[in-house]
């Protein structure tokens, strides 16, 4: 099977927070545009709570939702019971779509499992400390090599400035 890259896409505050009360604790219009550009046309893997917080499938990409409970009856959503099952399904969908990447887009529990499996992370570091109830695992510099970085000042529709960094898994 062709090598399909597994990429985590996340926005995380300085103190590791990614969510609060089932939603993101910020408004970052410029980052949502980047998220769309990064994920469009590629399978996205997410947990049920993340899917519920979005409220509908992300358009223009196959959506794979992980849930041990009820299925989501929607033509653009595939269901999986575990992260490994979801990634295998997303890799098949990527091959069918002719793309070489699947994007893991949350939430906290999914990221905690996926950080050990991912090849790459596209991280928007939100330049603020916040309260929240969903967190992203620490990025271990022994495992992850920071590559391209881009400081993004807060635009008119952004709550905070950000720093976008692409991390590649270091070779063992």
From TrEMBL:
**Keyword Nucleotide-binding set for record:** no
Alphabetically sorted, this entry's keywords are: NADP, One-carbon metabolism, Oxidoreductase
One GO term of the biological process aspect = dihydrofolate metabolic process
Pathway(s) the chain acts in: Cofactor biosynthesis; tetrahydrofolate biosynthesis; 5,6,7,8-tetrahydrofolate from 7,8-dihydrofolate: step 1/1
What Gene Ontology cellular component terms go with this record?
Answer: cytosol
What InterPro entries is this protein classified in? Answer: DHFR (IPR012259), DHFR-like_dom_sf (IPR024072), DHFR_dom (IPR001796)
The EC number(s) given in the record are 1.5.1.3
Q: Name one GO molecular function term.
A: NADP+ binding
Q: Where is the DHFR domain?
A: 5-169
Q: Which reaction does it catalyse?
A: (6S)-5,6,7,8-tetrahydrofolate + NADP(+) = 7,8-dihydrofolate + NADPH + H(+)
| Record bears the keyword Transport | no
Which Gene3D superfamilies would you find in this protein's record? Dihydrofolate Reductase, subunit A
Function noted in UniProt = Key enzyme in folate metabolism. Catalyzes an essential reaction for de novo glycine and purine synthesis, and for DNA precursor synthesis.
Family, per entry:
Belongs to the dihydrofolate reductase family.
**Listed name of the protein:** Dihydrofolate reductase
Q: Which organism is it from?
A: Rhizobium pisi
């Amino acid at each position: 099977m062709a090598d399909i890259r597994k990429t985590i896409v996340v926005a995380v505050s300085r103190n590791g927070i990614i969510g609060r009360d089932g939603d993101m604790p910020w408004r970052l219009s410029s980052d949502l545009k980047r998220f769309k550009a990064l994920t469009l046309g590629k399978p996205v893997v997410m947990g049920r709570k993340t899917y519920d917080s979005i409220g509908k499938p992300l358009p223009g990409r196959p959506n794979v939702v992980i849930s041990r409970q009820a299925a989501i009856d929607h033509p653009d959503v595939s269901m999986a019971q575990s992260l490994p099952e979801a990634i295998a399904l997303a890799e098949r969908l990527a091959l069918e779509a002719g793309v070489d990447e699947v994007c893991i887009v949350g939430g906290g529990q999914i990221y905690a499992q996926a950080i050990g499996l991912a090849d790459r992370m596209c991280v928007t570091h939100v330049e603020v400390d916040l309260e929240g109830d969903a967190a992203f695992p620490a990025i271990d510099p022994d495992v992850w090599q920071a590559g391209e970085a881009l400081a993004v000042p807060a635009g008119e529709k952004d709550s905070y400035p950000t720093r976008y960094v692409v991390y590649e898994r270091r070779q063992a």
